[in-house]
Input
Amino acid sequence: GAGVSQSPSNKVTEKGKDVELRCDPISGHTALYWYRQSLGQGLEFLIYFQGNSAPDKSGLPSDRFSAERTGGSVSTLTIQRTQQEDSAVYLCASSLSSLDTQYFGPGTRLTVL
Amino acid sequence: GENVEQHPSTLSVQEGDSAVIKCTYSDSASNYFPWYKQELGKRPQLIIDIRSNVGEKKDQRIAVTLNKTAKHFSLHITETQPEDSAVYFCAASISGGSQGNLIFGKGTKLSVKP
Output
């Protein structure tokens, strides 16, 4: 079956612009996670959705970051007024539930000039 | 919160040798420990995982051991092959908790020389 997909695969933007990143989880997966991977670094947890709800947003690095999930499926991560330090690969993962294996998407490489 | 330390950051072995990567975690409530392999420019892929109710798990050339008392777990790859070259990440989480989000180590770049 289809895996987790993300779009766009690459995004180059200018400092100060807003960007939207999209994640399509595996069908039927109720849990969805966003992570950020900076160059040569590990993965940093950003936010988790169970269904359409995000019980804990404390992983988001600043109030410029927000995320939503609709219909228990697609999720969008929005970064407002982008800064150069936002440059990273943004990875989405989904799992059947919070008890189960997380499967990752291919990521969106964001470059802020 | 949980903190995961991973060592070494780089590891170079000859083809056919074994490779061992070690991780420690801080939160004794963590009960799920997956290992992901990430090839250059690709997504992380789960290679093996272990839950806290077992001490060891094997899958062909890959094994993971867990010491809950010491709060550390290790990945063992035997008979390494050039295609094992990648970055390996360990992670820990409280599976079934309010989130189940993974806390990752910083990764180990494994190079297998033919």
About this structure: The interface with chain B takes residues 31, 33, 35, 41-45, 48, 55-56, 59, 91, 95, 97-99, 101-107 of chain A (CB under 8 Å).
